[in-house]
C-alpha cells in the first residue's frame, strides 16, 4: 500500500465502481424525482455533481500522493501524465473542491429550512448573501497558503530532513512542497472545517426544532410531517457519511502534522477513504430517499429477471430421420 503504483491501482479500482453509481444517482435525480421534491431537485443535483467532480479529482484527475507529516507530495493523475497541469493548480483545486462539497451539503439543509419554515422570516433576506459569502471564502481560503509556497529546492531539503525514512523511489519523484511551516496550513483547515460545520449543524438543529414545533401545534398533517422527517433524516444520514469518510482522514492528517508522524501506507489509506466518500454517499442517497429506492429496486428486479431468462436452459428436441414406411411387398 505504500508504493505509488499500488495506490494508483487502488483508487482506479474505486473509480470503476464509483462512477457508474454516481451516474445512476444523477439519472435518478434528473428523471425520477417526484414533483413533490421539485423545490430541492436542483440543489440535490448540484451537490451530486460537485461530489462527482471531487471523486474524479481524487481517483482519476489528480490522484494526490502525499507524504504527511511533510506538506508535500505529487499528483499521479491524468492532469499530470497527459496534460502537464501545474501541481500548484491541482493542489488548489483539490483542497478547494473538498470544502465546496461541504458548502453544497449546507445548501441542501438550507433549502429545506427555507422552503419549510423561513419563507416569511428574516432569513429570506440573508440567505443569498450568506451562500455567496460561503462560496467566496471557500474559493479564496487557499490563496494565503499558495502565496507562501517556499522555494522548491530548499523545501525538498527540509522535508528530506523532516522525514528521513522516505524511500529512494519517493525521493526520485517530482515532489511539490506546499509549506515548511504547519501553522498557516492547519489554521486555514481548522477555520474552514469549523466555519462550515457550525453552519450545517446549526441548520440541522433549526430544522429539528421547527419540525417539533410544527408537530406540536398541529400546523401540518401527520402524513406531511412524516414525509418531511424522513427526507431530513435521509439528508442527515448523508452528511454523517460525508463526515465519517472525509473528516476521520482529515483528523489523521492533522495529528500526523502535529506529532511529526510518517506512515506512507496510512497516508495512502487516508486518501483511499477520501475517495470512497462518493460511492458511499451515493449508495446512502439512493437507499434513504424512498422515491429513488423504488427505482433501484425496480432496476434490480429487471436485472435479476434478465439474468434469469438468459440462464434458462434451452430444451433441444431431436427428431429422428428414420421414419418407417410400410412396405408394399
From TrEMBL:
Keywords tagged on the record: Membrane, Receptor, Transmembrane, Transmembrane helix
Record's keyword annotation contains ATP-binding: no
InterPro entries assigned to the protein according to its UniProt record, in alphabetical order: 7TM_GPCR_serpentine_rcpt_Srh, Nematode_rcpt-like_serp_H
Transferase as UniProt keyword: no
Stretches that traverse the bilayer: 12-31, 52-72, 92-109, 130-147, 189-211, 232-261, 267-289
Protein name as annotated: Serpentine Receptor, class H
Domain of life: Eukaryota
Gene from which this protein is expressed: srh-257
